Fold this protein.
Amino acid sequence: MAKILLGFMGAGKSTIARLLAPDFVDMDQLLEQKLGMPIKDFFEQEGETAFRQAEQELLGQLIRTDQVISTGGGIVISPANRQLLADNPDNIYLKADFETLYHRIAEDRHHQRPLFLQHSKDQLRAIFDQRQPWYEEAATQVVDVAGKSPEEIIEEIL
Ligand code: S3P
């Protein structure tokens, strides 16, 4: 049974996954390997739809494993992915308010998110508002992460 970490960009999914299991699977990283380029470049060259297709195929493979999986924030957009998640008994939603997440995304110079680069703050807030109920629906555990250290979050999860 896979342990799946869900949440918007900047929620700390990879950081928490690494602490839960050093051999966790980072979907974004694996996709970059498979696609042969950074996600930002793939969005520019092939478009978001092609990225979502690759993301959906990968989730379909990984969800059958028993690994800890850090997803990309857009994993819940696809109805097929939401169905896969509904059938998985261990989905942890790392939840935070939009302002906290926006600040983290904007500060993250190492991880340039195409959605951040392509959208205004208000547009990104609309994306957040749309996804929020999908994360909630898919979650079997919701952890409020705003203002907490990774260690505190891990303690809550365990
Ligand atoms: C995306 C989030 C990113 C990455 C891609 C699209 C999204 O992952 O998958 O840039 O749609 O929210 P992180 O949530 O790890 O930043």
Observations:
- The mean pLDDT is 97.
- Strands lie at 3-6, 25-26, 68-70, 91-95, 141-144.
- The pocket of shikimate-3-phosphate is lined by residues 9, 13, 28, 39, 72-74, 113-115 (CB under 6 Å).
